[in-house]
Amino acid sequence: MSRAAGRRLDGMNNTSVTATGLLDDKVAFVTGAGRGIGAAAARLFAREGARVVLAARTQAQLKTVTEEIRAAGGTADHVPCDLADADSVRAAVDRAVELYGRLDVAFNNGATIQPPGPMDQLPEAEFDRISAVNLRGPWLAMKAEVAAIRATAGRGAIVNNSSVGSLAANPELPVYGALKRAVNSLTGSAAVTYGREGIRVNAIAPGLTLTEMVDEWERDSPGIIDRLTAQNPLGRAAGPEEIAEAAAWLLSDRASYVTGVILQVDGGARA
Fold first, then answer.
1. What are 89-102's pLDDT values in tens digits?
2. pTM higher than 0.85, yes or no?
3. Nearest to 137 by CA among 96, 168, 182
4. Which of 73, 82, 88, 144 is the most exposed place for a label (fewest CB within 10 A)?
5. Burial, 260: exposed, middle or buried (Cβ in 10 Å; 0-12, 13-18, 19+)?
6. Domain ranges in the chain?
7. Which CATH superfamily is domain 22-265 in?
8. Which ranges of the chain does DSSP label H, i.e. alpha helix?
9. Displacement of CA 34 from its chain's centroid (Å)
10. Whether 100 is catalytic
11. Which of 100, 176, 194, 257 is catalytic?
12. Alpha helices by DSSP H, 56-211
């Protein structure tokens, strides 16, 4: 490190600063924000100072979460969005810009689960359905978000929600895992493509998290929560808020030199 750089770092370390929220004065767009990790993220981002636009197909859930954020003193609005439909995704991102004048950060959380079981037992229609949401959806969202950030804030950050199930063989949810692994690849490619523009792109890979989606998995595969919890080094599943914290940090300026990362938030499950 040069002496000049050292002096700059010393100056930063010695400067008294006022604590602020991780996402102060940022406009944040969150997909799948009506429940689970997305709803937890929307609440957290607002507490951390962001103006948040919640997007999902579930209008009633979006309205409830938005009202909770406002009642707690945060700034939020919501917009319907079908992640499998390009026009719907573009319109939702455009709405965020219309509401707040720009887009700074986005969390592409929305996803759907497959019926568990061997891949040869998954009907083609189900493959097409989950592919449309879990891979086409993040791709469409990133396209719209990059365009909006580029045209307004100029610099920003995107986080995609992947899964620890994308990092190894996934015989129980094989297509879900494969699509999430494809999201990891898109994340890395986007990070390299847009880094010089000041747009960082990362992903988080949650482990077992207590959400409605996991409840659905438990109904189809009784005992799966207990089995996965028993294998976890921390001996428990995550709460949605714990996953949201990782996304908030990656979107914040405190992660300003982090891009192209797939951050495992899994209690050591893949250690």
1. 999 999 999 999 99
2. yes
3. 182
4. 73
5. middle
6. 22-265
7. NAD(P)-binding Rossmann-like Domain (3.40.50.720)
8. 3-14, 36-47, 59-71, 86-100, 124-131, 137-151, 174-194, 212-220, 224-231, 240-251
9. 13
10. no
11. 176
12. 59-71, 86-100, 124-131, 137-151, 174-194
